[in-house]
Amino acid sequence: MLRIADTRTGRLVEIPSAHRHLLRICVHLPVIDTGIGAVHLRAPLVGDVLARTAELQGLQSVTVLATPDLPPEPARTLERAMAVLGIHPPATVDVHHLTETVCAAADVHVLAYGTSVQDAVGGVRIDVGQVSPAPPDGGVPGRSHLLASDLPDAFAPEGTDPLAVRMLLLGHAHSTPVTVTSAALDEARRMLRHWRQQVADWAQEPSRPIPADVLRQAHAALADDLGVPAVLDMLVSVAKRADVPAGAKFETFAFLDRVLGLDLARQVGHQHPATP
C-alpha cells in the first residue's frame, strides 16, 4: 500500500485506489519568468520518486507535466535540467488547462512552490517545499537558484556531480524548505562518491539476498509519504553493519537506487582508488 499525505487535510491517503493498478501523477509548475531554477525542478523530482516508488511496488504510472506556455528555449532548458538530475521524462507536457487535460483525472497533484491550482481539482495534493540558495556575505540573495544552458554550473559549484544536487534534495522531506549551500552540496558529492566506491567494491563479492528487515523497513518508509530521507539514513546504517555480507549490501544499494536514481553502480567494473 502506498500512502501520501494530502496537503489540504494532512491525512494519509492510499494511492491509487485499491481497485486500480495505474497511478496518474500531474506535476504543476508556476509561471517561469526569471529562468529555470531549482524550485522548478524539485516538484518534477518528487513526481519522479513517486513514480519510481509505485513501480517498485508493481504499479504502473503515468506522469504529466503541467507548465505555463513556455517559449522554446526555456522549455528546452527545463528538459535538459530534468535530464541531468535523472528525472524520467514525463509522458505528456501540457499547459495549465486542467479541466481539458489528463491532469483533471490525476490521482496525485505535485505542486512546485509558488504554484496554485483550482481547489476543486480532485486527487491528493502535494505542496513541495521551497528551494533557496544561501545568500552571499552581503546578505543579498544570489542567482544560484537559476539554471542556464550550462547547467549544473549555474547553481552548483564547478565539478559538482548534478546527481549530488538530487541527493541533497532527496535528503529532505518533500514539503520541507531546502537551502542549497556549497557546504551541503560538497557533503552530498562526498557521500555520493563514497557510496559509489563502496558499491563497486561490494560488487566483487558473491551476491547475497537483501536482509529481510532491511527490505521491510525500506518498503515501509517509501510507502509512508515517500520517506526517502529515512531510506538514505538506512543505507548509511546498512553500509556499516558487520552482520550484512558485502554481496547483500550491493544488492540493497542497487535495489533502492531504482527509487533514488543516484547511479550508485556507476563505478562497477571500473578501476577506482582504494579507500584511504
From TrEMBL:
This is Cysteinyl-tRNA synthetase. It comes from Streptomyces virginiae. The lineage of its organism: Bacteria, Bacillati, Actinomycetota, Actinomycetes, Kitasatosporales.
